[in-house]
Amino acid sequence: MPLEDDHGRAVTGIRVSLTDRCNFDCVYCHNEGLGDTRGPMDPQDGEMTADEVVRVLEVVHEFGVEKVKFTGGEPMLRDDLTEIIQRVPDGMEVSMTTNGTFLPGRAAELAAAGLTRVNVSQDAIDPEAFAELTKSGAYDKVIEGVEAALEAGLAPVKLNMVVMEPTAGYVPRMVDHVAENDGLQLQLIEYMPEITGHPEWAIDIDRVHDWLTDRADRVEHREMHDRRRYYVGADGEAETPDIDAGDPDGPAAGEGMVEIVDPVENEEFCANCHRVRVTHDGKFKGCLNRHDDHRSMADMTREQIRATFRETVANRVPYYGEYMVKEDGQWVVNDDYIDRPVPTADDD
Known about the structure:
The chain has a single domain (13-271), classed as Alpha-Beta Barrel (TIM Barrel), CATH 3.20.20.70. Helix content is 27%, strand content 21%. The chain is built from eleven helices and 15 strands. It has helices spanning 50-62, 81-86, 107-113, 127-134, 139-151, 171-180, 193-196, 205-215, 267-271, 302-314, 335-338; strands spanning 13-17, 67-71, 93-98, 117-121, 157-163, 184-190, 218-222, 227-233, 243-244, 255-261, 275-278, 283-285, 294-296, 324-327, 330-333. Strand 5 (157-163), helix 6 (171-180) and strand 6 form a beta-alpha-beta unit. Helix 1 (50-62) packs across helix 10 (302-314).
């Protein structure tokens, strides 16, 4: 059975950063909440080895963790990525977030190894805008990578787009792009100034929700995560949307799916978080936004990993609504939480 924290949230997923190296330098990068710490392109001593990554996955799988997403940095800079995917415990779903530039020529190999799905970062359907946002000239390679993933059977491919002032104007074209191309979905991710800076880039995400409600043929409300999925026809003609709490079969023919991830100041989002993270240098991290909850797995013995995982889960709280609380309309750190005794594995 999965471990639950004190707020009744079972941990069923884990995100593992395989490296902090990246061949892009995106203006919004937060490197899994650690800040833009892009390192040299050569492998670093601090990165977990393949054996260490697999050991962590085997242990958390004992506790009912069913899904792993490999992230970075750019995870495909790991020469041993195929080996790591092959060694993921049986029954654990494997996905990956990538910038897509290395998928051509490797997507089929990774799918054969056990990869089931990819998220590809793509913030604009425009080479010049893409280059400005990512500080790279790899637009064509990313498009080729998405096509390679689809050909390898990794559909649906989710395109990740961070929505902020520098990118908001590209949202309509991105929505049209996924509506016009079978096998693609769009995940619009709210910009998080609290971990990336530049608060002037933040937008009112409700603007995007409202626009999509008008644009969509139908709307699905996912109650578990309090998210909305917008199903958009390729012809650009929207019918009156229906809000429904069920789970439809997915996009119909000629229809694209768009989902908004809006965690900023969202208590409902945090109340439904079911994942733990692992940093590239082997530390459990209970929350993307927090930096006081990193727990080293020391020399990576299974016993230590089990104990550290239990402590990490025991110490998880919703970031908004518990770690951060509202006072006079402003979000502030909850001093009562900060000053409380820190849970340990012995408290289970």
